[in-house]
UniProtKB/TrEMBL annotation:
Superkingdom classification of source: Bacteria
The species this protein was found in: Myxococcus stipitatus (strain DSM 14675 / JCM 12634 / Mx s8)
The protein's name: Uncharacterized protein
Length: 220
């Protein structure tokens, strides 16, 4: 099965009866971000979360509209969708694709996939502001390349998490790069490579996401 179709199949599985807005006509990079979103939902479910879906208006959608360029969590340009993650006895969370987050410097950064407190998301929608990085539980930088990942992308990720510093930040790619992996490892940053449907590394990545949710549950 072509890789884009395999990614879309796993996304559809995670959404159940709700259809994804993405198709085989969309860029691999956009589909890959939604695929990582689906893995995060799988990890949350494994940790006991109930998962529901909403659009920007708070309605349950028949089609989950994914962002295909960086955007604001409060944007109503399209009925963008997100997932609501509810762990028993814990504050609810939301999972989003392609939203801007305010770093400690107040500079806005794109998070390819972000999980944040629902209370923060509600505040942002009500006041047309971007989420604070301190309210982001899990953030993933997603890169899909036909060749090895350039070292510069790992360096850019280092700069990103320097401003949105907190546990639960990951650099996830579909290929590999020894130099990028060496850099991230030397700075103790979370990363995973060769991530595709059926890859043997999926269990390890899902475990990393589960650990982020486990830590969230323990701290709240």
């Amino acid at each position: 099965m072509p890789i884009r179709q395999a990614l879309l199949s796993d996304i559809a599985l995670a959404l159940g009866s709700i259809k994804p807005s993405l198709t085989t006509a969309d860029a691999h990079s956009d589909v890959f971000e939604a695929y990582i979103f689906s893995l995060i939902l799988r990890a949350a479910g494994s940790e006991g979360a109930m998962i529901a879906f909403e659009n920007i208006h708070g309605d349950m959608p028949t089609v989950l509209v994914f962002r295909t360029s960086p955007g604001y969590i409060f944007s109503t340009a399209q009925p963008y969708g997100h997932a609501v993650l509810s762990f028993p006895g814990k504050p609810p969370l939301e999972a989003h694709v392609g939203v801007r987050v305010a770093g400690r410097s107040r500079v806005l950064h794109e998070c390819d996939v972000a999980v944040l407190y629902r209370s923060e998301a509600d505040l942002c929608r009500a006041n047309s502001v971007s989420p604070r990085c301190s309210k982001v539980v899990l953030a993933v930088e997603c890169k899909f390349y036909a060749s090895d990942i350039p070292l510069g992308l790992a360096r850019a990720f280092m700069g990103l998490i320097g401003d949105i510093q907190a546990p639960g930040r990951f650099f996830v790619v579909n290929t590999s790069s020894q130099s990028a992996e060496r850099l991230l490892t030397s700075h103790r940053r979370g990363w995973e490579h060769q991530v595709t449907p059926g890859s043997p590394v999926l269990d390890r990545l899902l475990g990393s996401f589960r650990n982020a949710f486990k830590d969230f549950k323990a701290s709240r």
